Structures are given as structure tokens and as C-alpha cells.
Amino acid sequence: MGSDAFGEEFWEERYRSNSSVWSGQPNAQLVAEVADLPPGRVLDVGAGEGADTCWLAGRGWQVTALDFAATALRRGAEHASRAGLADRVEWVHGDVTTWDPGERRFDLISAHFLHLPKPELRTVLTRLAGAAAPGGTLLLVQHHPSDLETTVGRPNLPERFTTAEEAAAWLPAGWTTEVADARPRTATDGDGNEVTIHDAVLRARWG
């Protein structure tokens, strides 16, 4: 994805230019959908600065944290070390569009805001689905296409916004959709106004 306007170079520069990019808190939909699952092996796709990774590791998960921004991974590793979780996390520098999990299988695959063009996202979801262990869960959370109609400042790239139902239809046979939702939450736009936006939340189970 090096040639992608929102690819590795874009994100690496964004992380390098800021002391921190994200809040340090786990994504709300991850907490909502995963808190009751028994811990096992999890792939955190687009792990960034490690907030989701550290939350999962703190709940007993063994985490493979994948991201293509080296600066973000370094910060995540530092956060995990300070929290005493270093032994529960493998930090992997890789691009999800080309990364091969090999023989590894995961009880949970979590991907938040993986805004690839739809054909590319469909290919990635198929590959990720193949890395699920029997009974494993896939959690995909995206900005909903309706956000483009708000003032919250989403890029005008509708081909990168997918509903949960659309993504569910791309999953291979054998997957059961448990949640396909457009979940509202409040955000603040560039003028300081409160805006209702939506997360497209897909949770599915293999086998």
C-alpha cells in the first residue's frame, strides 16, 4: 500500500509528527463486543499505538499486533512494557494487504477502521477469515457511509466506506453473522459542534 494516499508513508508521517495520535483508550465497539469472550489468541489488525492490544492483553489474550507504521508499533510496545504486558504481545511490522498469517490461527480477529477500497477490503477479509480458528470470531468496525453526509470531516472517498451488511456478504461460506449494525455515537466536528456519527459493526463466527 505504499502508493496509497492513506498508506504506510501517510501513517508513518502522521505518527512521527505527533507525540500521540489516539486517545489511549480501547475502541468502544471492541469493549462492547469482546468483553464477554473467553481469552485466547487474537490478531489486532491496524494496532496503531496499541490501546486495543493492551486492553486485550490485560484481559488475558495472547495478541499478535499488526501495523505498517513502525513508529506506532514502537509506542505500542512501550505502552505494553509499562503495563507489564510485554510477554503477551507479538508486534508485527506488516501491511495487512500482503501479510500472510501462515499456519497461525486466531480465536479473535479484530480490525477497526480498515478503510481500504472495497475490492481490496473484500480480498483482505477473505484472507483474514481463513486465519480464524474453529469457533473463532471476526470483528470488523468501520466508519459508516452515512458519516459522509455529516460535518465530521470524513474524506470524500465513498468507495472506502462499507456497511456491516455489505462486509458480511463478502465472508466465505461457513461464517455466521451475529451482529451487523450501524451503531450511533457522538463526535465533535471541526467547528466544535456535536455530531451523531455511526460505526458499522460486523461480528461473525466461524464454524
Chain-wise SSE layout:
Layout: H1 8-16, H2 28-34, E1 41-45, H3 51-58, E2 62-67, H4 70-82, E3 89-93, E4 106-112, H5 118-129, E5 132-143, H6 164-170, E6 175-188, E7 194-206
Parallel strand pairs: 1-2, 1-4, 2-3, 4-5
Antiparallel strand pairs: 5-7, 6-7
Please describe what this structure looks like.
The protein is an alpha/beta fold and 207 residues long. The chain has 6 helices and 7 strands. It is globular, with a radius of gyration of 16 Å. The model has no long low-confidence stretch (mean pLDDT 93).
Low-pLDDT segments: none
Mean of residue pLDDT values: 93
Radius of gyration, taken over Cα atoms and rounded to an integer in Å: 16 Å
CATH topology: Rossmann fold
From the helix content, strand content and strand pairing, which structural class follows? alpha/beta
Our measurement of the CA-to-CA distance between the termini, rounded to an integer number of angstroms, reads: 31 Å
CATH level 1 class label: Alpha Beta
Output the CATH homologous superfamily.
Vaccinia Virus protein VP39
Fraction of residues in H or I helices? 25-40%
- Under the CATH scheme, which architecture would be assigned? 3-Layer(aba) Sandwich
Shape field: globular
Helix tally equals: 6
Along the chain, the helix and strand elements come as HHEHEHEEHEHEE
Strand elements, count: 7
Our count of domains comes out at: 1
Strand arrangement within the widest β-sheet reads: 3-2-1-4-5-7-6
Strand content: 25-35%
Largest sheet: 7 strands, mixed
